[in-house]
Write a structure and sequence with these properties.
Helix content: 25-40%
Structural class: alpha/beta
Strand content: 25-35%
Number of helices: 6
Bound molecules: D-4-phosphoerythronic acid
Number of strands: 13
Mean pLDDT: 97
Distance between the termini: 30 Å
Amino acid sequence: TTGDISKRKAAEAAIAEVTSGMLVGLGTGSTAAFAISGLGRRIAEEGLTITAAGTSLATEAAARAAGIPFLAFDDLAAVDLCIDGADEIDPLFRAIKGGGGAMLREKIVASAATRMICIVDASKPVETLSRALPIEVLSFARAYVEGAIRCLGGDPVIRPAPSDQGNLLIDCAFGPIVDPEGLARTLDAIPGLLGHGLFLSEIDALYIGDETSVARRER
Ligand code: DER
């Protein structure tokens, strides 16, 4: 589909920054999937030699299928370059991630990266973040965290499947998020809430694909 062409173009532009010897953080989702298959092709065709860190079990399986060597996640301390998608991203490179439920590991890899590139099609850039915000919650803290989210004006909806870590994934509709930093600070202070999809400082560069070209923006 045209969306796929745009996502693939953004991914292929981003993986051009990968050089041999790098430890590369591989994101989760359909756009990141194009980066994974593209890196697999570069390994096969150019002899690129990299090690990867996967942000989800699905991404680790895709990396394995693409012939990309990767580290066990608990051996990961830092990566050179992280390439990942986003559900929304605003003009200040603040993003909502977690559509695929992987934002806890994605944020660890993004924070551990010297440079993080976000790859998107034209549907992701927005003026104001307003999608439902994915959060990961320790299941025994469900009622408490749901109550805290409602006090913040959010509407929590629990996903049917748990996260890769076996915790609850809850999508919280807050409407337009006019103070993302304030909301992130408040969420980070809620005990039992393990992670959320507000990525406010991690993204260094944005590649926006469309059917014929890619726009690159630096923070
Ligand atoms: O779950 C995630 O954080 C993904 O990166 C998501 O934000 C983007 O997924 P997509 O590339 O399939 O749209």
